[in-house]
Design a protein that fits this description.
α4 links the parallel β1 and β2. 47% of the residues lie in helices and 23% in strands. It is built from 9 helices and 7 strands. α3 runs parallel beside α4. The longest helix is centred in the N-terminal third of the chain and has 18 residues. The N terminus is likely disordered. It is an alpha/beta fold and 218 residues long. It has a single domain, classed as Vaccinia Virus protein VP39 (Rossmann fold), CATH 3.40.50.
Length: 218
């Protein structure tokens, strides 16, 4: 029983480090994530199909490898992460882009994004969603900082609990309830397997828009 408890405690500590890396162990975890998730980060950035006009935000950037990849294509890439260890590690990895003003990284949570309304064309996260303090508050703030028509891409990891399909159904409902539209899910086999989820911020329809449609239709 004691051995089982020690194993459970070690697993819990490791899980906390992956969710919020800190100290020496957090630094090691960050470098491990950079190596382990290399192919996944590249796949995510490829799916974003970035242009030189895009302003992009990553939530939970970890060691900053996906930020570095995105900065090669986008006009500007910002990132937030609650771990100061990851902020420091990611800043070292993205030093030149930060100094040129194309990348901005800071410590913050998903539910309190330090940006003005409708700042970004694209927001994405990679395996960080399950570590958000408040998923609903975080999604609400993502919707706030996205421009109308903007995209939100999530890369979710296959967990050890209920089936991923069940998780995706609940997530789709939560995204729709928050105000997102055009929600699509696609499984992937990268790393431990998981799914990509894409959602959009709807365009606002004003009274003037409605009158124009009625006028053109009449």
């Amino acid at each position: 029983m004691a051995t089982k408890n020690r194993s459970s405690a070690r697993a819990s500590t490791l899980d906390r480090q992956f969710g919020h890396p800190s100290g020496v162990m957090g630094s090691v975890v960050g470098y491990a994530m950079a190596i382990e998730h290399k192919k996944l980060h590249q796949a995510v950035v490829d799916r974003l199909v970035l242009s030189q006009e895009d302003k992009v935000l990553e939530i939970g950037f970890g060691p900053g490898t996906a930020v570095k990849l995105a900065a090669r294509h986008a006009a500007f890439v910002a990132g937030v992460d609650p771990s100061m260890e990851m902020v420091l590690q990611a800043k070292r990895r993205n030093g030149p882009a930060i100094r040129s003003g194309r990348v901005q990284l800071q410590r913050a949570s998903a539910s309190a994004l330090p940006f003005a309304n409708e700042t970004f064309d694209i927001v994405f996260e990679v395996n960080s969603f399950n570590h958000w303090d408040s998923k609903e508050s975080g999604l609400t703030d993502v919707l706030r900082v996205l421009r109308a028509g903007g995209r939100f891409l999530m890369a979710l990891r296959q967990g050890h609990g209920p089936s991923l399909e069940s998780d995706l159904e609940m997530l789709a409902e939560l995204l729709a309830r928050t105000g997102f539209s055009q929600i699509e899910c696609e499984r992937h086999q990268l790393g431990h397997g998981g799914a990509f989820v894409t959602a959009h911020k709807p365009y606002k329809v004003t009274f003037s828009d409605l009158m124009l449609v009625l006028f053109l239709g009449g």
